[in-house]
Amino acid sequence: GIGTAGPEQKLHIVDVAYATAAAPHAETKVIIEDGTDHAYLEFSNPETGGLLFSDTASTRGALLYAHAVDAMLFYTNNGEKMRIQSNGNVIIGDTTTTFKFDVNGTSNFRNAVIIEGGFIVNEAGGDFNTRIEGNTNANLLMIDAGMDTIGVAVVAAAGTQFLVVAPDAQSTINAAIIGSSLADAAISYGVRGHASGGGGAANYGVYGSATNASTQNHHFHDAAGNYSDATGWHDVSDPDRKSLIRNLDLEEDKYLYNLLDEINVKSYRYKSEVPVLGHHQTRMIENEMGEEEPEPIYDNTEKAPERFGFMANELPEFLSSKGQMGVSAGRIAAFNTVCIKRQKTLIRQLQERIDILEAA
Questions:
Q1: Stated pTM of the model
Q2: Where is the Peptidase S74 domain (predicted)?
């Protein structure tokens, strides 16, 4: 006993008269007490100091401080397993890091992980996959670094950058990609496909198909480009999905028919189809997202294929897409049907008059 007349273990050191608040563990060999608020055990050494844990049969564990690098080292099984560097960085499974917390090996978190900053996976490079499992599905979300693909409930094959499948026969994909907003908010793009360059092409901007089934919702396709080559444009026409259905009256027929004189078919060439021939200049333009991007200035526009169609801004608003940037093929078809039927009615009336005149 040092500083105490009643030592409780083999070595009991007390700085100021102090009664132990709780009985020490039965296996404790050394007790250091202080009556104020500090109790220190100091190792003064210019290189390494620490606590060693060993016996005659097992290898050593240790808690060491390396003065040369000002780092705290944690040893188990006679080897360093964790280190706290002088700058406070913590590393497990290695001896150096530039990150605040670095684990070299597989980790397991049994509760939520909250990240308030950015989240980067595989910054060092290499084809290391990222996978989220859930509900017995091993590939709830699979990012395949080797194939550069993302799959939901599936490993997406090479060439399919993003693929969503139903995990089993009873499941339903309610939304593969969906955009929504609150009141007064705006969505620039729900689903967008974009290709640029003389050799670029976008096969599908928005594509929905069904086999032995039906596509449930109305499809809207707003295109600026050579959409006139597209085939198989379909809108849902099931009457069960429509309301306020009625036939147009005579005055509405006449109104639409009279609009025919105001609609002009134009000849034009798409800028996106102009082939790149040799060197060319560029100019900066603002794209749909308000960003500045270069646009080639071509002097070979006549090389693009000639096309025939409409200018959306010259059409009545009900025949063009929202914002009058494109033409609604379905509405044009309905408009043409009204005009043709109106012409047939006029032809029939004229034929009846001719028959009367010829009979007279």
A1: 0.46
A2: 237-354
